[in-house]
Amino acid sequence: MRRGLKISLVTVTGAALLLSASACGGKKADTGGGGDDGKKTLKIGLAFDIGGRGDQSFNDSAAAGLDRAKKDLSVQTEEISAKPDEPDADKESRLRLLANKGYNPVIGVGFAYTTSIIKVAKEFPKTKFLVVDADQCKVEGANVSGACFSEEQGSYLVGAAAALKSKSGTIGFIGGVNVPLIVKFYAGYQAGAKKAKPDIKVLPPKYLTQPPNFNGFKDTGLGNEAAKGQLDQKADVIYHAAGGAGIGVIKTVGAAGKWAIGVDSDQYNQPAVAGVKEQILTSMIKHVDLAVYEFVESVAKNTFQAGTKQYDLKNDGVGYSPSGGHVDDIRAKLDELKAGIVSGTIQVPTKA
């Protein structure tokens, strides 16, 4: 953690205080103060993934859950964003900073926090931790919870939508970084497309960067260039799972008059793509907001349980957006496929 980092602290009343976090160590702060109504105020520390609040995708979904907690519960929060290509030591320092200042619970947004949270949680046994997108859906520790998502199930449905809406017979996929998590998106997308239209051509997946370079979740220019490449291969529907870099995908695909499919949040309603919103066919919704809120609520109500929780089609943890009405004519088919997945008659792959 760099010394002198400026961090914004937001209270439930909406007042903003500017703090200077001058060190990552030090004496632990009290775990919570009293609110105006005499109730204990929960202090929530949240460490974002690359791109932070405002990425209009994955991080913003987490932020929405935090904002809901601020509205519904007696809480105050502190947020810190990650830096591209940072080492695990920086993530650990960020988590220790929040825990040392008395934030409890502490949330790490993104699978890259998994190892760091498991390590730091051992140092703060009284602090509850959540890792969103727990790597391989595994966590350790009596004070650690992991939120996992069946991205392949939601991707299966938007893959079916892509195939059914394609006029060229060719569709594409752009992933931010070539990691197992993003491969799940492609695996489900390809399977859903083939189920809906067996003769559909699904282009090989394009991953913007390879680990340890995670800039593929942020660089819109990379998304733009990748989209041009798939458009040149006659794809007329392109699905992205690239976080903030996906904004470049959507803009380029939309400007070409083809269909884009968003991810994580309902991207039809996001300002960054307002000019091409009518070219957003649908979005694969991943309710990170629900996972964050339910975790905070469990800590507030003393119902916290360690271990992982799966968010899937059965509990509406993933799904697709009907915004814009562009999939209205095929919703019956999509809902039929959803029912098959929920009942278990359709098994969705997690590897391509």
The CATH class name of the largest domain reads: Alpha Beta
Strand fraction band? 15-25%
| Spatial extent as radius of gyration | 20 Å
- Largest beta sheet, briefly? 8 strands, mixed
CATH architectural designation of the largest domain: 3-Layer(aba) Sandwich
Question: Can you characterise this structure?
Answer:
It is built from nine helices and 15 strands. With 352 residues, it is an alpha/beta fold. The strands form two sheets. It has an eight-stranded mixed sheet with strand order 2-1-4-3-5-6-7-14, sandwiched between helices. Strands 8, 9, 10, 11, 12, 13 and 15 form a seven-stranded mixed sheet that branches. Helix 7 (246-255) links the parallel strand 11 and strand 12 (259-264). The two termini are 38 Å apart. The model is unreliable at 1-38 (pLDDT under 50). Residues 1-23 form the signal peptide.
